[in-house]
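At this stage, I put together one protein's amino acid sequence and its backbone structure tokens, which the following lines show:
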Amino acid sequence: MGYYVNVDRGVNLYVEDLNPEAENTILFIHGWPLSHKQFEYQFDVLPAMGYRCIGLDWRGFGLSDKPFNGYTLDRLADDLRAVVEALKLRNFTLLGHSTGGAIAIRYMSRYRSYGVSKLVLVDAAAPTGFSVETANRYLTQTVNDRPKLMHDVTDGFFFQYISKPFSDWFFQMGMQAAGWSTAAIVVLLRDENVERDLAVIQAPTLLIHGVHDKVIPFSQAEEVKKKIRNSQLIPFHYSGHGPFWEERERFNRVLMEFIQ
């Protein structure tokens, strides 16, 4: 079931809400420059296992409204809080991938884990995001040849082989975003970080990270583990930046075991 939630004046976010009657709720926050559809291989399975799965598209991405402004960690965390309030979510698991992980971390810090019982960070862009060199390269591509940017992102995302049809699907997912929001998040990942937020987190936290991640190195997950007191890190040895697809059966099993 899909619907829109108003989070700011003139800004509505798209929400996919599967199995809303279930007691165990997982709120999924996607990565840059994708949408909730990246979690298709969780949404295909977990609702049938008794979980409520909620996929949220940030402002500027997927099926959500695409305003020109509002692309800061604080504002994106505020958007997330508005969705939590609108859906009256309590005692839920918050799962963030990549930049979505940074948004989840800022939410946990800014709102003192409001409503969240457990946190899952998947190849999270933490404590920092892009280097200046990487960000500037992505910005140049975004304003000159965004399809080439998305092609390069897709090429570097996975460790395992992906088919041409899968690559095309992934490419189109990224192209759903607006150019201005795509660029704005690159700036966010260059200029903002969540280093100070990590020590505030007290909820049980699961870190899932691909050992072969070329986007956010595995060493950053090890650093995050040291800074979040109640955390555990599970390496995914056959994954790059996308263990939710590359090792999807293990990913789903580990996630369910952590939530139970």
Remarks:
- The mean pLDDT is 97.
- The first strand starts at residue 2 and ends at 8.
